[in-house]
Amino acid sequence: MPEPLRIVVLHGPNLNLLVFREPSLYGRVTLEEINAGLTRQAKESGAQVECFQSNHEGELIDRIQESSRIADGIVINPGGLTHTSVALRDALAAGALPVVEVHLSNIYAREEFRKHSLVSPIVLGVVTGFGALSYTVGLAALLDHLRATR
Amino acid sequence: MPEPLRIVVLHGPNLNLLVFREPSLYGRVTLEEINAGLTRQAKESGAQVECFQSNHEGELIDRIQESSRIADGIVINPGGLTHTSVALRDALAAGALPVVEVHLSNIYAREEFRKHSLVSPIVLGVVTGFGALSYTVGLAALLDHLRATR
Amino acid sequence: MPEPLRIVVLHGPNLNLLVFREPSLYGRVTLEEINAGLTRQAKESGAQVECFQSNHEGELIDRIQESSRIADGIVINPGGLTHTSVALRDALAAGALPVVEVHLSNIYAREEFRKHSLVSPIVLGVVTGFGALSYTVGLAALLDHLRATR
Amino acid sequence: MPEPLRIVVLHGPNLNLLVFREPSLYGRVTLEEINAGLTRQAKESGAQVECFQSNHEGELIDRIQESSRIADGIVINPGGLTHTSVALRDALAAGALPVVEVHLSNIYAREEFRKHSLVSPIVLGVVTGFGALSYTVGLAALLDHLRATR
Amino acid sequence: MPEPLRIVVLHGPNLNLLVFREPSLYGRVTLEEINAGLTRQAKESGAQVECFQSNHEGELIDRIQESSRIADGIVINPGGLTHTSVALRDALAAGALPVVEVHLSNIYAREEFRKHSLVSPIVLGVVTGFGALSYTVGLAALLDHLRATR
Amino acid sequence: MPEPLRIVVLHGPNLNLLVFREPSLYGRVTLEEINAGLTRQAKESGAQVECFQSNHEGELIDRIQESSRIADGIVINPGGLTHTSVALRDALAAGALPVVEVHLSNIYAREEFRKHSLVSPIVLGVVTGFGALSYTVGLAALLDHLRATR
Amino acid sequence: MPEPLRIVVLHGPNLNLLVFREPSLYGRVTLEEINAGLTRQAKESGAQVECFQSNHEGELIDRIQESSRIADGIVINPGGLTHTSVALRDALAAGALPVVEVHLSNIYAREEFRKHSLVSPIVLGVVTGFGALSYTVGLAALLDHLRATR
Amino acid sequence: MPEPLRIVVLHGPNLNLLVFREPSLYGRVTLEEINAGLTRQAKESGAQVECFQSNHEGELIDRIQESSRIADGIVINPGGLTHTSVALRDALAAGALPVVEVHLSNIYAREEFRKHSLVSPIVLGVVTGFGALSYTVGLAALLDHLRATR
Amino acid sequence: MPEPLRIVVLHGPNLNLLVFREPSLYGRVTLEEINAGLTRQAKESGAQVECFQSNHEGELIDRIQESSRIADGIVINPGGLTHTSVALRDALAAGALPVVEVHLSNIYAREEFRKHSLVSPIVLGVVTGFGALSYTVGLAALLDHLRATR
Amino acid sequence: MPEPLRIVVLHGPNLNLLVFREPSLYGRVTLEEINAGLTRQAKESGAQVECFQSNHEGELIDRIQESSRIADGIVINPGGLTHTSVALRDALAAGALPVVEVHLSNIYAREEFRKHSLVSPIVLGVVTGFGALSYTVGLAALLDHLRATR
Amino acid sequence: MPEPLRIVVLHGPNLNLLVFREPSLYGRVTLEEINAGLTRQAKESGAQVECFQSNHEGELIDRIQESSRIADGIVINPGGLTHTSVALRDALAAGALPVVEVHLSNIYAREEFRKHSLVSPIVLGVVTGFGALSYTVGLAALLDHLRATR
Amino acid sequence: MPEPLRIVVLHGPNLNLLVFREPSLYGRVTLEEINAGLTRQAKESGAQVECFQSNHEGELIDRIQESSRIADGIVINPGGLTHTSVALRDALAAGALPVVEVHLSNIYAREEFRKHSLVSPIVLGVVTGFGALSYTVGLAALLDHLRATR
């Protein structure tokens, strides 16, 4: 039996506040509920996820570097860093792991400066606009991809 | 028992050539195989899909207008029209249906003019970069959304 | 008695859906009602109009080419093609007919990409923002112009 | 019998020189003739117009403020201020009156800097390119609009 | 006892209409009330203010030139001229007086063209977004500055 | 004896009107005469040409897809689609055929929006500005290229 | 007696160095002196302030999130993050508190890249250019606002 | 003996303050001295000048319109209106007179927004950077031009 | 018998190195071979060519000026000067000769700064992308044009 | 008696062709006539001029460097290099001499790329649009300036 | 004997991963080896270096502030923060130390967004493109500079 | 014993004037002294340098072409041509030699147009801002590189 796939799920700044934040855009759900759902989904699929949130760019980069050594893929919602952090992009590109970028809201339907992602050009794929479902769908796609290319 | 959800899947210009086209980017799969897979996936989920491809902007708009009357949602890969057709956007916006935009390749990792989608600001969500899997994932997300908001 | 002036009225993509579409912007009226009104208005003024709608850029160009041979002027609402079709502009410029461009809504008060019309620089005049009245006013101005320059 | 509608017609800088100015573009007509025509047109339609021209931005703003208290609508050709005066735009927006913007020439077919109007986004509608007829048509549209929404 | 500080308060175009204008943005207050409040505030602080409003750029420039000879500082809300008048900027820069720029609304949260002020680079400081309080706060800051640098 | 080279010549929107259109720019010649000349030129060179004009983007794409299966090269004058159609570019890029882009007029000496061709970056070569001779020269260059690389 | 208003004052990167930094621009004052002054000002006004400085974006975001639960308003000088941090903006926007943005120097009179603030569009008001007085004035305005809207 | 040439010299906003204004840029001279010098220069050359300064755009336009009827040429230093007034440009273009644009300082060596003149494209020539001498030189060139083309 | 047509062929900087330079782009051919081929082609067609290469912009301009007196047309590959030399453009425009611009590689498929030619707007036609064949084809087109317009 | 002022007059590329070149723009005059006139003008004013024309940027720079050692000022018409040569600008800036930039035509009324001069920001003054008179006027202004600042 | 010069060497985000990262660009070397080499180089030159790496912008700023008190100069490779961190730039500018910016790869030959450094305008010098040698060379230049200006 | 490495050092326009030029920026040193220093440095390192300066772009290109045949590497300070010469870039790229670009001043801290180098994307490395030391450091780095890759 092959070893289970290990996925790291990363949440960027302010995503810990999910339930308070602009509810009309994202619907009501807490980050804990999202993480619990992803853990269940991974388990049913014979995989493992580890979830991590931080408001600190540096901590996210530390975690990405660490993930490159211990995981098979990354699901990341970089939050506001999506549009501004070259360092985060470099960390993701430096690792050899496939990355799926997810966003709760449809970032292309919001302010102009949210329409450009520094991360998108170096990821495997992007899922945006489905609320918490973006994570579910992104994780499923990543697992499928990893199994197809194992 | 509720009526099954009806989804229209639209493929824009050149997607009929899938198997010939820049194979390193999209992997080898024919449009027929994608359509067959989506039909199966819908059926298993108690829904119906109807698939349509055209190289003609006008035919796609005609079909979108028609779908607004008979379907519950649209999955669309507008191909090259993604970046140039205000008329297609208007057709999608005029209908009251939720729309999921999908792309086989990661359009944010290609030429500059492919990074801007006229369609994205008016859709429910976007899935991009997973090859044929983008359709699967997009359809699943659309069905989930429709059931949640029924 | 002079031959009656012949005017071709062209409606671009999605204008067939008028009554369904974003009603707060345009008021409630069907394309059939607009066409009927223009026919009556022309008749009272001793002129003739022929109305045509299409979602296909190519069909509109075909019709413009034909009009150049049989009509005295064109009233056109190019819809979403206003902002994207050089070919439509070329067709209008190639004919020797005076053209009046009309829009139901005030396109300068909407999204940024709607503020630029490829057609405006080669037409006689533009009428925008008066709902169905834009057509009435545009047709009247065109007939006046044709009579003044006959 | 309802009170007659009162319309203020405002002409911006240099429009007092109409007959001298670049005649190939606008045809030969004096501002007095235009004003006389509009007065007649209004009278026939049971309305009243008051016409005013100034080369001074401040005087035009004063008059717009005054009109907001005593009139039902404004027809304005802001001349060169169209493209540069935020203060004029603010004055028009601050009043609660419907405004129709008119231009003698087709401003979209002239120099680049004339293609952008600061006023257009806050008016009811725009009529451009028909020479003196632009005023006639604009006044008619405004009266129709006022009667429809009375 | 030192001579009281003399401050000129200048209000640009349309600010005389304050109470009518887009009330949701600025709250309900008349220019007279603002002026009365500033007069009181200055008096309590042992200073004098003179208030002036005009819709005419030229009159504002005349008054700025005059103020340079008779006053110690200027509080100005240039209204719509903020974004368009190099001549106003030149007048303010030519005087040797410290200038405080104030705005009722937060201009950075409004239309794109309101985010750039030609005046800001040559003033002492800017206060924006606090409604009538912007004037109070701006006057206080100017008086403090003048006393500190006397 | 080798099989004769088969070339498809494609004319975009409005080129069927050649003889009427802005004669000072292109000289007087009909599309039929151009096609006849190219047929003769090909024959003399032991090759075959098939000519096709359409005002419909979709029909041109259909024909390009078909040509990819049956021809050795394409000469195309995309007309107004040159500057706006990503879908046409994709169709040309998807086929494995060498493409020569031709224009009757010197597009770099015309309006700003005509100076950028979406097609040029993916073709073998471009010939522009020689009127009908652009086709002759483009066909000759394509045949030479095909023989050199056979 | 109502509970005293609680205000959090946040200082971004490098503001701890105030006394050393480009003294001609800001005058000589230490951050400790500014904080002491604000504490005194609040006390006299029956309010409380808590001051916090960090060079770490993440710590500032953590503190903003915390403030949203325990304070009534925020005064923030985001320093160099003003122009680059979408995450900071998101944190401020996510909280339900009114925010006043302050800057010591007149940022509109400095380098081009300092003229654009990501934070300004989502704050209540901005005070810039008065040195340490910017904080005083900003705090006073915030307290006034909170009392008026209590 | 021919009638003497009549030249109108126009000074825009803030030029009445010449002697106070940023002396390092322009040297010390009053507008009266400049006008006196030009009067003398014209007289020696058998011509007449009339000088006029205003801070009001409208007054300058009024004077330009009047000059078109009574003068042979215009020397204008539009001051800050150089960069912002389409109405002034229109007034100058509407008159049939040759215009010489002058500036005291080298506007191309100052702020970015001073490098673009709306007036330059429609004048005969421009003289910039020589202080008061710019007027002398501009007047001489205009007189020479008028004599050569009489 | 008419005098033979005289054509000057000009090669800009670095074209003397042809055989060494980025061979994958241009194929292997020396400038001498290209010149010899053009000489032969001209001779067969009853014309004469004179070929000249220089790395010096000034020498190319000198030669263009001279050619204007002694030749009937110019074929030029301006190399890197294509994108930067207004002086070269002026020299070509000042002569009354028809000019054909040629490039070995498809400049529209290379770096962004190579896509804009300062020369194209003032030439008769452009041929690009066919390697050495670009010259052959350009010369042929120029000779045809000269004979047609003789 | 003071030593006579020595001025170097430099003409850039293509100015040797003056008489042939686009005569409608510049009028008919040869460079020799311009040079002769300037020599005479200088002599009458007790100064000396030396004139030099080259199509080579490098020769112009050599001459500017030399002039810095032997002359008192430079009059230069850089021709097409005006808009492209940083090296020419550097040469002029490196010398300690006052420079007057002249142009025959009004460069602000021509193509967009001619409106920006790299040289203007570092010269004393600019004279443009008066044909050969631009040189006369520029030389006179330079001599005046040199005498005033001697 | 003078005290040895103390240099702080700072490495930004992801540089701790050196050996893993895009090896074709930088060659194979670990950060430890680079640091060891710099320590040796400094020692041989009678100086001292202290090396520090962090993925956290805030920690780098803390260290820069500290260095300003204890060191004589800084060598910094800001990694991805080069292009995005105004706060880092402010920290470097606030200290009075000379700074040398180094990059392993030639950042001008990579993605567009890497070509602009926020740090470069405020440093002494920049060394880029020589791999680990960039540090060696940068340190040598800094030591030379410090000795020359001691 | 291996043959000594041969390096060509190229100085662009105006660098022959070094000692006169803007001394505050570059310090006082002549080009001869720089060249002598580089000759000595090379000799000590067992290499040879040949130095060449020209104000003529063409001569620099000639020398680069020649160097490609006889030297092992190039150190170049292109002066003002850095920002404008595609031809120089092409010459450097066409040779197979490693190139080091050096600048005396920190070009990123000067005018906007000096911040972009056409040469940087095709060189090995860049050294900027250290005055004459930039050459020393650049030569050392080039020699190291050549020895490492021999």
Folded structure, characterized:
- The structure is a homododecamer of 150-residue chains.
- Chain A has a single domain (5-149), classed as 3-Layer(aba) Sandwich (Rossmann fold).
- The mean pLDDT of chain A is 91.
- In chain A, β3 (73-77), α4 and β4 form a beta-alpha-beta unit.
- In chain A, 39% of the residues lie in helices and 19% in strands.
- In chain A, α2 (31-44) packs parallel to α5 and α3 packs parallel to α4.
- Chain A is globular and about 45 Å long.
- With 150 residues, the first copy, chain A, is of the alpha/beta class.
- The first copy, chain A, has 5 helices and 5 strands; from the N terminus they run βααβαβαββα.
- In chain A, 55% of the residues are buried.
- β5 (125-128) of chain C pairs antiparallel with β5 of chain D, so a sheet runs across the interface.
In total, the number of domains of chain A comes to: 1
Strand content of chain A: 15-25%
Measure the end-to-end span of chain A: 14 Å
Largest interface: A-B, 24 and 24 residues
**Known CATH architecture of chain A:** 3-Layer(aba) Sandwich
**So how many helices of chain A?**
5
Order of helices and strands of chain A: EHHEHEHEEH
CATH homology superfamily name of chain A: Dehydroquinase, class II
**What name does the CATH topology of chain A carry?**
Rossmann fold
What general form of chain A does the structure show? Answer: globular
Largest sheet of chain A: 5 strands, parallel
By DSSP, the count of extended strands of chain A is 5
Low-confidence parts of chain A lasting 5 or more residues at pLDDT below 50?
Answer: none
Based on CA atoms alone, the radius of gyration of chain A comes out at 14 Å
Task: Report helical residue fraction of chain A.
Answer: 25-40%
Helix/strand structural class of chain A: alpha/beta
CATH class membership of chain A: Alpha Beta
| Average pLDDT metric of chain A | 91
Strand order of the largest sheet of chain A: 2-1-3-4-5
Oligomer: homododecamer
